[in-house]
């Protein structure tokens, strides 16, 4: 079944494919020489580039939270809440994190049966919309040492909508 002629064909095919690959690479390098001109020659055309960081876009200033919160939508906040759902419940039972029903206006670290990190108690007394906004933007920056592993919500609109939704939940 397997004779010497089959082995010669396999080795010959491999060598032929390698030869075609190497010749193709050599031809491509000749046509499209990478890395500028040959032996010190200058490029035929150079694209001028402005110095001084002119290409950087200026970041749009973030809107004032109070202004955005006045126009916040609880319906849009319900969609944002899906990011919280894996660790927090709205039915009064604790999960990985404490329940969030009635959280707006509630004292910080006041849910019975949940063990809070001390970092939260030090930063605020009550979960006002402003305190929730700061915490939701970046929990680790707002309350250094918190055990909450959430990275935060960068959009002020998302934070305002989420807080508006949480205001509608029970207490």
Automatic annotation (TrEMBL):
It is found in: Cell membrane. It comes from the Bacteria. It is a single-pass membrane protein. The keyword Nucleotidyltransferase does not apply. Residues 72-170 form the Cytochrome c domain. Pfam families: Cytochrom_C (PF00034). This is Cytochrome c.
């Amino acid at each position: 079944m397997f004779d010497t002629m089959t082995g010669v064909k396999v080795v010959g095919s491999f060598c032929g494919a390698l030869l075609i690959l190497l010749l193709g690479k050599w031809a491509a390098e000749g046509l499209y020489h990478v890395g500028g001109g040959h032996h010190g020659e200058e490029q035929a055309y150079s694209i001028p580039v402005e110095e001084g960081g002119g290409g950087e876009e200026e970041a749009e200033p973030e809107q004032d939270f109070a202004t955005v919160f006045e126009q916040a939508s609880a319906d849009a906040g319900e969609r944002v809440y899906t990011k919280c759902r894996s660790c927090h419940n709205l039915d009064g039972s604790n999960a990985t994190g404490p329940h969030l029903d009635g959280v707006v206006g509630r004292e910080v670290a006041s849910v019975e049966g949940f063990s809070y990190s001390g970092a939260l108690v030090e930063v605020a007394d009550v979960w006002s919309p402003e305190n929730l906004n700061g915490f939701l933007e970046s929990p680790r920056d707002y309350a250094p040492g918190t055990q909450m592993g959430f990275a935060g919500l960068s959009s002020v609109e998302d934070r305002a909508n989420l807080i508006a939704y949480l205001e509608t939940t029970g207490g």
